[in-house]
Design a protein that fits this description.
The structure is a single chain. By secondary structure, the protein is mainly alpha-helical. It has a single domain (3-108), classed as Helix Hairpins. The protein is 89% helix and 0% strand. The protein has helices spanning 3-47, 56-66, 68-108. The longest helix is centred in the N-terminal third of the chain and has 45 residues, at 3-47. The protein is rod-shaped and about 75 Å long.
Length: 109
Amino acid sequence: MDRQSIISKLLALPAKIAAEEDNVLQAHANLIEAKGILQQKEDSLLLGNIIDGKNAEIRAAQMREYTEDERKHLIEAELSLKNAVARLERYRDEFRALRSVAELLKGVA
């Protein structure tokens, strides 16, 4: 990698980092929304007397059965957030590494 490509990458990375920060915020908002939807469904099932098991284990199993789609959506939202955070960290790591290389090259020049 030559100096010009390092400079170009260093100049481009802040925009990529900012975009990925926006993605992390959106993924977090999606996660909060998914949690809210699941909670609303669970509340509806409880208040509607649909969950009527004789013990806690049966009621929990019924709840899982009736909220399968909402739980799947929640898991997807959690995974999306983790992936967005990982991408953001990779961009930040790359930026720090390139800055270090640029500092080393500045000392050599």
